[in-house]
Design brief:
The chain has one domain. It has a four-stranded antiparallel sheet. It contains four helices and seven strands, in the order αβαββααββββ. The longest helix has 52 residues. By secondary structure, it is an alpha+beta fold.
Length: 176
């Protein structure tokens, strides 16, 4: 009986096939993760743009910012952002706006109407969820807690920040 005439899959062919499948699977998983990260950043950008537009409208209508309470002063804000990024083993995507004044405040999303955000105020919640946060969570105890998922505005430049940030590839994005 001639062994070479037997039809079938050799161990080498099977191994090569498995290796090729593993490489393709790895590429697909990497691509999916990249797409998820891009989506996270896009959602944060959409939130900040939506808040910018609504804060501008509110300011033009009422002549004041929609503020819930004061937040950290500039020096403390910058220090806390850097410390928080460090605890997450990330670097910041950029520094806070150098033209920012000394005062930051928590944005009162309820004053902006029924907007829906992807992040902050109970992740993806509407302003109704923000009521829950405002009355039952850390913000009522300590509005200066950087780890809270709140949006903050500089009272001089009206630059909006999400101090909690989104970490992608060891970079913490908290504003655009």
């Amino acid at each position: 009986m001639n062994l070479k005439s037997n039809k079938g899959v050799t161990l080498i062919a099977l191994t090569v096939t498995i290796i090729i499948l593993l490489i393709i699977t790895g590429a697909i998983i990497s691509n999916v993760q990249d797409q998820i990260n891009i989506q996270k950043l896009d959602q944060l950008n959409v939130d900040i743009e939506l808040l910018n537009a609504n804060v501008d409208d509110y300011y033009l209508t009422y002549g004041e910012l929609p503020i819930l309470c004061d937040y950290l002063h500039k020096e403390a804000f910058v220090d806390e952002i850097y410390k928080f990024a460090d605890t997450r083993h990330a670097i910041l995507n950029n520094d806070p706006n150098p033209n920012d004044g000394d005062n930051y405040a928590v944005i009162d999303v309820e004053k902006l109407g029924g907007i829906t955000l992807h992040y902050g105020y109970e992740k993806g919640g509407t302003t109704g969820d923000y009521n829950l946060l405002k009355t039952n969570r850390k913000i009522s105890e300590d509005p200066n807690h950087v780890e809270d998922e709140i949006y903050v505005i500089n009272t001089t430049t009206h630059q909006i920040y999400f101090p909690h940030g989104i970490v992608v590839d060891n970079i913490m994005y908290y504003t655009f």
